[in-house]
Amino acid sequence: MSATAFPHATGEAAKTVEKHQNSQDLVLYSGWFLEDAYPDYKPNLLPADPVERTYARIWIDFISRNVVPNFMRLMQAQTADKQTAAREDLVSAFRTYAEKVKGPYFLGEEFSLVDVAIASWIVHDWVLKENRGYDRAVVSGAWKTYADTVE
């Protein structure tokens, strides 16, 4: 964190941070429609098997409900105690996700829409490392290996 930066949000910024602290119910599913609209296009980002496709969608939803809000909460946290709580929640979400990775990519050998859904949060975690004390290795060795592969 910059030595010249104010340690917490004030004024309108503080109001904005406060308004965005609660969990949101909005989940974006737009990527799913590409597979449905163009089922013969290869490579597929979702598995052909309906059970595996559902499994992928469940984990995309997990990212939307657990990784995204906790990542953003950690980014926005202004006090040490809120940063610690948000970092612990994000580490927990990443650890849960990493336990389900089936290969170099989430579903196994092929890069999938699940990997797409989490990739942005992986490639931007350097911000958390530099400013919020986050470290991939603290999550787990499996998470670090997966995140390094996706990145």
What features would you describe in this structure?
InterPro entries: Glutathione-S-Trfase_C-like, Glutathione-S-Trfase_C_sf, GST_C, GST_Omega/HSP26. It holds the Pfam family GST_C. Residues 49-151 form the GST C-terminal domain. This is GST C-terminal domain-containing protein. There is one protein chain. The protein has helices at residues 11-19, 30-37, 50-76, 80-98, 113-123, 125-132, 136-139, 141-150. It has a single domain, classed as Glutathione S-transferase Yfyf (Class Pi), Chain A, domain 2 (Up-down Bundle). The longest helix has 27 residues, at 50-76. It starts with 10 loop residues before the first helix and ends with a helix. The chain is mainly α and 151 residues long.
Give the SSE map.
Layout: H1 11-19, H2 30-37, H3 50-76, H4 80-98, H5 113-123, H6 125-132, H7 136-139, H8 141-150
Helix pairs in contact: 3-4, 3-5
CATH domain class: Mainly Alpha
Q: In terms of structural class, how would the helical and strand content be classed? A: mainly alpha
Helix-strand pattern, N to C? Answer: HHHHHHHH
Radius of gyration, CA atoms, in whole angstroms: 17 Å
Uncertain residue ranges:
none
Number of strands: 0
Share in β-strands: under 5%
What is the share of helical residues?
A: 55-70%
Profile the largest sheet.
none
**CATH architecture group name:** Up-down Bundle
CATH topology: Glutathione S-transferase Yfyf (Class Pi), Chain A, domain 2
| Total DSSP helices | 8
- Morphology: globular
Distance between the termini: 24 Å
